[in-house]
Design goal:
single chain, alpha+beta, two-stranded antiparallel ribbon, 2 helices
Length: about 160
């Protein structure tokens, strides 16, 4: 007499191996695509950050720019940070942050800070950028930080730019 228990067990094993192989294949495809997305997001954030830093650490355009005629937001004069332009940039972000993103031609949010707090209009300010954000409440899985150096108040200054989705 032939036993059918062995045949059923063999069919179960074949199905289990088939399901396992499909699971491994799906995992591999997901892993390959996910790492590509992370790299792409990092590159986009870095690109926007470099655009902002290049613009901010320039003289701006036109030379005496204000909110109504600005083409390039820049805070540098005579190779150092100009207090008046820095205050204009700060005011611009407070009055129309979204327009600053249009001027920079970026889509991600940003926040610019200095190693030391800066004084604008006689007040200590943590940073310039997104009006409802401080360094303590940026909540994003995709965040980059760019560091640059300049001269502020005749001393070396470290500038940090945070860009996030």
């Amino acid at each position: 007499m032939i036993s059918r228990k062995g045949q059923t067990w063999g069919l179960d094993l074949i199905m289990a191996v088939f399901i396992f192989v499909i699971g491994v294949f799906v995992f591999l495809i997901y892993s390959i695509n996910y790492s590509g997305e992370a790299t792409e997001t990092f590159e986009k954030l870095s690109y926007d950050g470099e655009i902002i830093m290049k613009s901010v650490l320039s003289e701006g355009s036109p030379k005496g720019w204000d909110e109504s005629n600005v083409k390039v937001i820049g805070v540098i004069s005579d190779n150092k940070i100009n207090q008046t332009k820095l205050e204009q940039f700060y005011n611009f972000t407070l009055s129309d942050y979204d327009k600053t993103k249009i001027v920079f031609n970026i889509k991600y949010d940003y926040y610019l800070t200095f190693k030391e707090n800066i004084t604008l209009h006689g007040n200590q300010v943590e940073g310039i950028g997104h009006p409802n954000i401080s360094l303590n409440n940026i909540d994003s899985n995709n965040l980059i930080k760019i560091t640059r150096f300049s001269i502020y108040n005749n001393t070396p200054a470290t500038i940090y730019l945070y860009v996030w989705e």
